[in-house]
Amino acid sequence: MGIFTAPLVTLAVAAAFYATGIEAKCGPWPEVSCCRKLVAAGLGHSVVFPNETTYHMSLESYWSTSAALSPWCMVFPSTAEDVSTIITTVVAGHCPFGVKGAAKKEEKSGFANSISSRTGNMNETTYNSKTGIASIQPGAHWQSVYETLAPHGVVATGGRAGSVGVGGFLTGGGNSFHSASHGLGCDNVVNFEVVIADGSIINANAEQNPDLWVALKGGSGNLGLVTRFDLSTIKYPNPAKPEIWGKFISYDPSAGGGVIDAMVDFTDKAHLDQNTTSILYFGHVPAAGGKVIHLGLENTIGVADPPAVAGYRKAGKILTENGMVVPMTELVKSEGPAQPAGHRNIWFSLAFNNDARVMKFATEQHEIAVTKLTKLLPGDDGNGNFTTMCAFQPLNRVIADHGIQRGGNVMGLDYWIQKSGSHGVLFLAELGLHGAENEKKAYPIVRAWAAAVEAYARDLGVGWGWQYLNYAGAEQDPLATIGPHALGKLRAAANKYDPDRVFQRLRASGFKIPEYERL
Ligand SMILES: Cc1cc2nc3c(=O)[nH]c(=O)nc-3n(C[C@H](O)[C@H](O)[C@H](O)COP(=O)(O)OP(=O)(O)OC[C@H]3O[C@@H](n4cnc5c(N)ncnc54)[C@H](O)[C@@H]3O)c2cc1C
Ligand SMILES: *[C@@H]1O[C@H](CO)[C@@H](O)[C@H](O)[C@H]1NC(C)=O
Ligand SMILES: *[C@@H]1O[C@H](CO)[C@@H](O)[C@H](O)[C@H]1NC(C)=O
Ligand SMILES: *[C@@H]1O[C@H](CO)[C@@H](O)[C@H](O)[C@H]1NC(C)=O
Ligand SMILES: *[C@@H]1O[C@H](CO)[C@@H](O)[C@H](O)[C@H]1NC(C)=O
Where does the signal sequence lie (predicted)? Predict the structure, then answer.
């Protein structure tokens, strides 16, 4: 159904192996000194050099080629103890490193000229039926998590595509089909096992290190490397029918304005039926004939066409409609037009009040961007050799409320809901294309599109200035947008658990705590 993610979705199959990890680089002659130090520390069996097949397979496993930079070596820990050894070794050697989850998209670069530690071998999920808690290793993909949980009749707040990795998803928020009923994915983590900068393996939960627990819920790789997530699971109301309803609707391009109005209405009422979700995107998808308007609808308790989606059904001319009531394991497999190998991606994430004017403006700016991109990248047939997504998702207040009830996080969503006094819309501008040179040339077009939307929303007084970390692109600075309160908590936790700022100074990848190094 594809709607859950991108029109470009996937290549997930290959992405499945090597999930979380670290990448590092060190001093002069780093490939020698840093990588050898890891070998000397007893990790020889898990250090992989560029002259090995595993190294290249791991690079090829990226969903987006833009993120696949070449580190000096990779290290694949198998246990929390291995991770601890890696951290103490790279810290002692002043070796820059990167933390890598399943590497789903473009991230702030920095994996090149570094050591990469990847927790892909740490991909197990175990379920405790007494506590209802799933213990998930960071290198797992949601597909395998859902498969492990299915026989127990439970599900979890995970990715809407099975190919998404656990490590990044849960440390960067995590928008799932269950967001309106259970908050973000991170809100459902009851305990993190994490290796902090001094190499110690500690737990962070409501009782032990609670400040770290809160800061890890949105703090990404800034506090340590999580080696296990203990996640609350969700029972289906009818155990005999552990199924989810999903529907994919493709509208005629003439339906645009009507569908946006329907989404505004849906978002305003999303707290009334917290089991129903929707994702809407406008896109340029050559394989689907060019301009598309796609809508994904889901109901987490398996109710087909619940009343909450009635407005969408009469919003405009529907071209195709395809519904199913299936286990989660099936739903997250059925992704739309696959993103062929070698695609590169540009992402920009924004948010604003639930306001049809901004959404309509965003789609107009999208059209302008598509026209420019078609000139730049016409392709053999002149239809444009690229795909875009101009996507909108509901940010009803109830999502933030569930987060607060579960102990709070550092996402900043509650801050923006409070400040705006409004439900919101999560916006994503995305481009998928081939070629590093093309990517460079296309960047200004996507940047201008996102900037126009941001300025328009701000001028109307409905802009949030929030960037959702998991959707933020390489040029963005999401942790600068979480509001003073969350940022204060994040900085305080970083000061306490990483006083030498290892994860700011030596971590070569991922989003950082803004203006922190200079404090
Ligand atoms: C096809 C597709 C579908 C998606 N669907 C959704 C969706 O439904 N909902 C949603 O919210 N997002 C979605 N996303 C975005 C996704 O959540 C992010 O790309 C996320 O970063 C993926 O996590 P990862 O582990 O795969 O990524 P990676 O790129 O490997 O990791 C991202 C960052 O997370 C941090 N990190 C990773 N592992 C750890 C760890 N063990 N400890 C500490 N820090 C760590 C690191 O800083 C790293 O730089 C989707 C993306 C794609 C490409
Ligand atoms: C690969 O490179 C490493 C580091 O330079 C070296 O130690 C190792 O012997 C090489 N392996 C092969 C098979 O060439
Ligand atoms: C987990 O990792 C191992 C070792 O890399 C791999 O063989 C296995 O297929 C992975 N399992 C899943 C479900 O991805
Ligand atoms: C949502 O699901 C819960 C059970 O998971 C149920 O109690 C509730 O009534 C459902 N809400 C609606 C509007 O269907
Ligand atoms: C798009 O670009 C890729 C990579 O350069 C190429 O293989 C493919 O044939 C192109 N497709 C079209 C329709 O131009």
Answer: 1-24
